[in-house]
Design a protein that fits this description.
The complex is a heterodimer of chains A (403) and B (305). By secondary structure, chain A is α+β, with helices and mostly antiparallel strands. Chain A is 30% helix and 31% strand. In chain A, the strands form four sheets. Chain A has a six-stranded mixed β-sheet with strand order 6-7-8-3-9-10, sandwiched between helices. The longest helix of chain A is centred in the last third of the chain and has 21 residues. Chain A starts with a strand and ends in a 7-residue tail after the last strand. In chain B, α1 crosses α12, α2 crosses α12 and α5 packs across α10. Chain B has twelve helices and no strands. The radius of gyration of chain B is 24 Å and the shape is globular. The mean pLDDT of chain B is 90. Classes of the chains: A alpha+beta (403), B mainly alpha (305). At the A-B interface, β6 and α2 of A face α8 and α9 of B. Bound molecules: adenosine-5'-triphosphate and magnesium ion (MG). Adenosine-5'-triphosphate (ATP) binds next to β2 and α1 of chain A.
Chain lengths: 403, 305
C-alpha cells in the first residue's frame, strides 16, 4: 500500500501560547511494502505525523492517501492500520494472548480462528511461549514484541511504529531493530518507523525523511541522504561522529579554509560553511593543509585524530542523553590516556587541572579525522591532509543550502 | 535498654488513640457481647437474672419488626448499591468524556453538591418530590396521562413507599461514587483508549473491556464500603419518613436493623430491651462481616490491580 501525504499540515492552537505549527506542508510518497524512517530531532513533529496517518489526530489541512483512497476523513478504526505506541500501551489487565486477540475480537473473528492467528503472529515475533503472562511480567523487549504482534495480527494495510526502541537498552535495541527489519520483510507490510536516532533510522530503513520543525529537509535512501545532504541541517544530523564544520569561502573556484585550498568549486566567490565527514580526510606526503594532531583516539580498528583548528565551527550535539553519557565516559578514559602519555601521575588533583572533557573535545575548536591505524600517528605529530571531494559539502553561509 | 525505651515511647504515642478507641469502641463492643448473654438486664439498677445463650437472639428473631427490618435492609442494600454503582459509573464516564474542561467542572460540582448537603434535608426534599398532590414526580406522570399516585402519603402501600425510598437512597449515594470514579478515570492513561480505537473496538467494548477492568480497584472499594454503609441505613428513612419510619398510618413499615436497635434503646427502661438491641446489632454485624468477606473473595478474582 503506497501512502501519499499531500501538503499535510498540523497546527496546534492553544489559548495561552501562540499556535504551534507541528507539521508544515509535508509532501511525501511512502513506497509500498517498504520500511520508511521518519527521522528528526525531538519535537520536530514525527509523532504528530504518525498520529495523523493513524487518524488519531485530524490534520489542519492537507490529505492522506492509502493507495488511491483518500483516507483523510476516515476514522482510525476503519483505516486498517497497526500502531505501536512509544510506550507500547499494552492493556495491563489482559494477558499477552488477550492483548493480541483484542483487535480480532473487535472485528468479530471466530474464536478458534483468532486463537490460531494470534499464536502464529506471536511465534513470528518470538513470544509464542509467553501467551499467558501479563505485560507487567515481561521485559521491555518482550512487551515491545507483544505490541508489534497486536498491531500485526489483524493484517493491517500499514504498520506504524513510534520510537519503539527508545525504552530498550543499547544491546536489546540493536537486536530488536534487526527483528523489526526481519518481521517487516517477512510480512511485506508498508511500515513507517519513527525515531530521533539517526543511526537507527539509517540502519534499517529502505528510505528516510529528515524533518526539522515540521518541515521536510530531505527524502531518499539513507546512504544517499548521507552522501548528498541537501542542506547543513541534514549534513549535521546524520553521521556518528558528526560531520566537521568549518568557516570557509570560495575564491576563484577554490574552496578555502583559512589560507589553504582544499577543493574546487564552480560557484561564484562567497563566504561558505564547509562540512567534511570525519572519514573524508586522507593523509598524504605533500599538501598545504598541514595540521598538528592534538589527541589520538583508537577505538577498535578506527583511529580518530583530534585536531585543533581556528576555523572550526563549534556545534551543539544532536545526540541523545544516553549516548552523551558514553561520550563522557570516553572522554574520561581519554583524559586519563592523555595524562599518562604526558608522563604525569594520574591523581585526582591533576585530572582536575587538565580540562579535556567537555571543553576541549566537544566545544573547543577541534575537528575529528578518522584515518587508517597503519599511519601510527602520535599526538604532537604534524600531518598533511587532502580532502576527498565526495565527503565534503559546501553550504551557503546564510541559508545553509547546498552551494 | 534502648529497645525497652523505644517500647515505652511507642506505647506513649499510641495512648491517645488507644484510650479513645477503648472508650468508644472496645468497651461498647464487649458490653454488647455481655448484654446479649444476660437475661432481663435492668439498665437503671445494672442487675440481671442470670445468663442465657440464645434467649435474646430468639426473642429478636421472633419479633415481626425484625423480619420487616431485615427485609427492608436487604432490599436497600442489594438494590440501591448495585444500582447507584452502575449509574455513577455511567455518569462519570460521560462526565469524563466532556471535552470542554469548564463544562465538565460545572457538572462535576453539580453532581458533588448532594455530598455536602444534609441527608435529612435531601430526604425531606425527596418526600416532597414524591408528594401525591404537588410533587414533581406525579406532575411528570400527569404529562404522560397517568393519574396521581400516592407514593409516600397517608395510606401509601409498602411497595410504593419502598420504591420512593430506594430512588432517594440510590440518588444520595451517587455523589461520592461519581467523585471517586471520575478521579479514577482521569488516572487512566489516554493511550489505552487510542490503542483501542486503532484496534477498532466499539464504545461498549471499550467500556466493558478497558474502562471497567482498569477501574475495578475503585469499583471494588466503592462497592464494599457502600454495602457496609447500606447495611447501616437509618438516617435516610428518618429523612424521608420522619420518626414514624413509614408513611402515616403504616408506622415502622420502612424500619431497618439500625432503626430497630434505636427502637429498642428507646425502651431501655424495660428489662431486657438493651439485650434485644445488642442481639440485633450483633446479627447485623455478622451479616455485614459475611458479605464483606464474600465481596473480598469476589474481588480477588475480578479486580485487576
Ligand atoms: N496536543 C498538543 N498541543 C499543542 N502542541 C503540541 C501538541 N502535541 C504536540 N505539540 C507540539 O508539536 C510539536 C511536535 O510534537 P511531536 O510530538 O510530533 O514531536 P516528536 O517529533 O514526536 O518529538 P519526540 O521525538 O520528542 O517524540 C512540538 O513542538 C510539540 O510541543
Ligand atoms: Mg514523539
Amino acid at each position: 500500500m503506497e501512502i501519499t501525504l499531500q501538503n499535510l499540515t498540523k497546527i496546534f492552537q492553544s489559548k495561552r501560547e501562540d499556535e504551534v505549527v507541528a507539521v508544515d506542508n509535508l509532501d511525501i510518497v511512502i513506497p509500498s511494502g517498504k520500511l520508511f524512517g521518519l527521522l528528526g530531532p525531538s519535537g520536530c513533529g514525527k509523532s504528530t505525523t504518525l498520529f495523523m496517518i493513524s487518524g488519531l489526530l485530524k490534520p489542519t489541512s492537507g490529505k492522506i492517501y492509502f493507495g488511491n483512497e483518500d483516507v483523510t476523513p476516515v476514522p482510525p478504526e476503519d483505516r486498517g492500520i497497526g500502531l505501536v505506541f512509544q510506550n507500547y500501551a499494552l492493556y495491563p489487565h489482559m494477558t499477552v494472548k488477550q492483548n493480541i486477540m483484542f483487535p480480532l475480537e473487535n472485528i468479530k473473528m471466530d474464536k478458534r480462528e483468532g486463537l490460531k492467528k494470534a499464536q502464529e503472529i506471536a511465534d513470528l515475533v518470538g513470544i509464542g511461549h509467553l501467551m499467558n503472562r501479563k505485560p507487567a511480567q515481561l521485559s521491555g523487549g518482550q512487551q515491545q514484541r507483544v505490541a508489534i504482534a497486536r498491531a500485526l495480527v489483524k493484517s493491517p494495510r500499514v504498520l506504524l511504529l513510534d520510537e519503539p526502541l527508545s525504552n530498550l537498552d543499547a544491546r536489546l535495541r540493536l537486536q530488536t531493530r534487526e527483528e523489526i527489519r526481519r518481521i517487516q520483510r517477512e510480512t511485506g507490510i508498508t511500515t513507517i518507523f519513527v525515531t530521533h536516532d539517526q543511526e537507527e533510522a539509517m540502519s534499517i530503513s529502505d528510505e528516510i525523511v529528515v524533518l526539522d520543525e515540521g518541515v521536510t529537509q530531505q527524502v531518499g535512501k539513507p546512504q544517499r541522504v548521507y552522501d548528498k545532504p541537501n542542506n547543513l541541517f541534514v549534513a549535521k544530523f546524520l553521521g556518528t561522529p558528526p560531520i566537521n564544520i568549518f568557516d570557509g569561502r570560495i575564491e576563484d573556484g577554490k574552496i578555502m579554509i583559512g589560507d589553504v585550498a582544499i577543493g574546487k568549486s564552480d560557484a561564484e566567490d562567497q563566504e561558505v560553511t564547509v562540512g567534511i565527514r570525519p572519514e573524508g580526510f586522507k593523509i598524504v606526503e605533500r599538501s598545504s593543509f598541514q595540521v598538528e594532531v592534538e589527541f589520538v583516539e583508537t577505538i577498535g580498528r578506527d583511529t580518530t585524530l583530534i585536531i585543533r583548528h581556528p576555523d572550526v565551527e563549534v556545534q551543539e550535539s544532536f545526540e541523545d542523553p544516553e549516548q552523551e553519557e558514553n561520550t563522557e565516559e570516553e572522554q574520561a578514559a581519554f583524559a586519563q590516556e592523555v595524562a599518562e602519555e604526558l608522563g604525569e601521575e594520574v591523581d585526582d588533583t591533576k585530572m582536575a587541572g587538565i580540562d579535556i572533557p567537555q571543553q576541549s573535545v566537544q566545544q573547543a575548536k577541534t575537528f575529528r579525522a578518522i584515518v587508517d591505524a597503519d599511519y601510527g600517528v602520535e599526538p604532537g605529530d604534524t600531518v598533511k591532509f587532502t580532502v576527498k571531494p565526495h565527503k565534503m559539502h559546501v553550504f551557503n553561509k546564510e541559508t545553509g543550502e547546498l552551494v | 535498654m534502648l529497645e525497652e525505651q523505644q517500647n515505652i515511647k511507642s506505647w506513649f504515642y499510641l495512648a491517645p488513640a488507644l484510650i479513645l478507641l477503648s472508650i468508644f469502641i472496645f468497651y461498647p463492643i464487649f458490653n454488647a457481647i455481655f448484654l446479649v448473654f444476660v437475661k432481663d438486664f435492668n439498665y437503671l439498677q445494672g442487675t440481671h437474672d442470670g445468663f442465657t445463650l440464645t434467649e435474646n437472639f430468639r426473642y429478636v428473631l421472633r419479633d415481626p419488626n425484625f423480619s420487616m427490618a431485615m427485609l427492608n435492609t436487604m432490599l436497600i442494600t442489594f438494590v440501591s448499591v448495585p444500582l447507584s454503582v452502575i449509574i455513577a459509573l455511567l455518569i462519570s464516564v460521560w462526565l469524563n468524556a466532556i471535552p470542554v474542561k469548564k463544562i465538565q467542572g460545572f457538572f462535576q460540582t453539580v453532581f458533588f453538591l448532594p455530598y455536602v448537603t444534609n441527608a435529612i434535608a435531601i430526604g425531606m426534599a425527596f418526600a416532597f418530590l414524591f408528594n401525591q398532590y404537588y410533587g414533581l414526580i406525579n406532575w411528570f406522570l400527569g404529562l404522560l396521562g397517568i393519574s396521581p399516585i400516592n407514593w409516600v402519603g397517608m395510606g401509601a402501600s409498602w411497595g410504593r413507599a419502598m420504591f420512593s425510598l430506594l430512588v432517594y437512597i440510590t440518588w444520595l449515594g451517587l455523589a461520592f461514587k461519581i467523585m471517586v470514579f471520575l478521579s479514577g478515570l482521569q488516572g487512566i492513561d489516554k493511550q489505552y483508549y487510542e490503542a483501542a480505537r486503532v484496534d477498532s473496538a466499539s464504545r461498549s467494548r471499550v467500556f466493558k473491556r478497558i474502562t471497567v477492568p482498569l477501574l475495578s480497584p475503585m469499583i471494588m472499594y466503592i462497592t464494599v464500603t457502600s454495602f457496609i454503609g447500606a447495611f447501616k441505613a437509618y438516617t435516610e428513612v428518618i429523612g424521608m419518613f420522619g420518626e414514624r419510619l413509614g408513611p402515616a398510618g403504616d408506622d415502622r413499615s420502612m424500619i431497618t436493623i439500625v432503626a430497630l436497635v434505636y427502637d429498642a434503646l428507646d425502651r431501655s427502661g424495660v428489662p431486657g430491651a438493651l439485650s434485644e438491641a445488642a442481639a440485633a446489632a450483633l446479627i447485623l454485624f455478622a451479616v455485614t462481616l459475611v458479605f464483606t468477606f464474600v465481596n473480598l473473595q469476589v474481588s480477588k478474582k475480578r479486580v485487576h490491580y
